[in-house]
Write a structure and sequence with these properties.
CATH architecture of the largest domain: Sandwich
Number of domains: 2
Structural class: alpha+beta
CATH superfamily of the largest domain: Cupin
Bound molecules: fe (ii) ion
Distance between the termini: 72 Å
CATH topology of the largest domain: Jelly Rolls
Number of strands: 12
Shape: globular
Length: 321
Amino acid sequence: MNSTTLSYERPGFAPTEEPRTGPLLEIDPPTFHANFNRKPFLIKHRLVADALFALPRLIELAKRLPPALIEYNAGDIPVSLNPTLTPHTGLSPQETLRRIEECRSWMVLKNIEQDPQYGALLHRCLDEIQTYSEALDPHMRGREGFIFISSPGSITPYHLDPEHNFLLQIRGAKSAALFDPSDRALLSEQELEQRAAGVHRNLVFKESYQAKAAVFDLTPGYGLHFPVTAPHWIKNGNEVSVSFSITFRTPATERRAIIRRVNHDLRRIGWTPTPPGQSALRDAVKYYGFRALRRADYYLRRNRATPAKGYKKAVAGEAED
Ligand SMILES: [Fe+2]
């Protein structure tokens, strides 16, 4: 394909710049209340024709974002993938987007909340989610948005994410296989601790797991809720896919992650730590201990970086105030 021939003009698609009025999401309150952060469930949205998701606009966004916020690689990869072996295409981000129909790639634009237009859209969507989530997991914070653009047939390897997530399908179709994050036959406490400590998100997938999957076929206009740390893998349909992931954290999700982070360190020195949620006392010691150490470390570093008041005068031979 000629790189000037953009593939975004799909049949029947007419991007609109009209102001967004009314709710953007359609949520069934009983379904949300019964399943939020416990089981995946579908919602509906009204972003399919939004001009922000037309490929030329996404190319412009990719130009504005810092390179560190663009992750992309070949899309024809196995479900179980060692992240150090991820194959790359050699294309630039812009060229990948221009040729997305044919270049067999997978791309994510991260932290799009840093862009005013995309950030405004993210916050509008999450404001609507918060109407329902606040009673179940209060004090939404750490709002982040991600846009996934991928070629026909691309695979997102088996992995987990640390946030509450709603994946809104904008264009093309996806099949998402999700797994129960509390099933320790699938997902060990050690794997959860490693992810909390910053190890790459990918997990090892065994074919035998698939029988336990909840599989959702996502099409434009629908969104899927991913409970925190629910393992999943995704396969695109036969068209280019564009998805908008709206995510957030809460004090409760952050607390759990910190406890697992501490457990990771304890396991490395030979302990067998108690998983979060089993002992209020141990959880509190780990959580507040971690925060106290972090705070002490912060002040030590700051004092090292910024000489104490009067230091410069003293070394210059002047009297201290
Ligand atoms: Fe994910």
